[in-house]
Amino acid sequence: MKNITDSFVYVGHWPYAGSFEFNTDILATNPINLSVVLGVLIFFGKGVLNDLLDKRKQRILSTIRNSEELRRGAIEQLERARARLRKVEMEADEYRLNGYSEIEREKINLINATCDSLERLENYKNETLLFEQQRAVNQVRQQVFQQALQGALRTLNSCLNSELHFRTISANIGILGSVEEITD
Fold first, then answer.
1. CA–CA gap between residue 22 and residue 3 (Å, rounded)
2. Helix segments in the chain, DSSP class H
3. What gap in Å lies between CA 97 and CA 39, rounded to an integer?
């Protein structure tokens, strides 16, 4: 059996350039063809392959840089949002505390205003009661006076006769006469 390296080393075994024949030795021809194709690809394709790989590398690096910039921007936005959230939470706590104290102040003011209103109503009620008592006392006095006057008139009318009436008139005329003399 022939050695594969024999076909590379023994150049004299190859046919001359003027003749054409098929080489049926598969083990001898394939490695040569493959080595020639790979040599040509490496020699000519090296620059193209390097360019393609460099472009791909640049795209990957620019994508990584863009991603890093986007990540930094997102982190900055997140920090700003967290700072705003902390600020809003502090303001909410402040409003809540102020709101509670404001509610307590309003509650105390409402209680004080209600107490004042109740006190005024109590005073008004007392004044109204006093006024009504005085009015009732005055009405009772008037009624008692009228009844006393009517009783006195009835008593006088029942007790007075014409002789007593004549004597009373004479006594009054005498009193008036003495008063006239004194004034003269």
1. 19
2. 4-9, 26-159, 162-183
3. 83
Q: Which residues of 16-30 are buried (b: 16+ CB within 10 A; e: fewer)?
A: eeeeeeeeeeeebee
- Contact present, 25 and 2 (Cβ < 8 Å): yes
Residues in the chain: 184
Interatomic CA distance for residues 59 and 145, integer angstroms: 123
Q: Give yes or no for a contact between 28 and 7, defined as CB atoms under 8 angstroms apart.
A: yes
What is the tens place of the pLDDT at every residue in 79-99? 999 999 999 999 988 888 887
* Spatial distance between the Cα atoms of 154 and 121, rounded to a whole number of angstroms: 48
Quote the CA–CA distance of 78 and 45 in Å, as a whole number: 48
Nearest residue to 2 (alpha-carbon basis) of 25, 21, 36: 25
SS3 21: coil
Tokens of 55: 């472009």
Give pTM, 2 decimals.
0.37
Task: Give the sign of the dihedral formed by CA 39, CA 41, CA 46, CA 49.
Answer: negative
The single residue listed with the structure tokens 């150049």 is 11
Structure tokens, 118: 């109740």
Which amino acid, one-letter code, is at 154?
A: R
